Amino acid sequence: MNNSIKKALLQKPVDWYIKWTASIILLTGITLTASNIYPLNLFFDVVGVTGWFIVAMLWNDHALIVINSVSIVILLNGILNYYVK
Prior knowledge:
By secondary structure, the protein is mostly helical.
């Protein structure tokens, strides 16, 4: 790998890696939802949303904290309902 590329990647803050990883995981979950692959989609979604919740905490962004914490609860409820039934 080129030294300038390595240097650019090493200069990224940790939230950059978390948000992009979480975004890719969320896109995978959305794709699984569109393909009706249930409940695997919920697991990908909860991991992606949790990643964004962590980023929201790092940024101290209250709107993102609320939306992602509520999303985590809803997704975990869906997972719980799937296995309890």
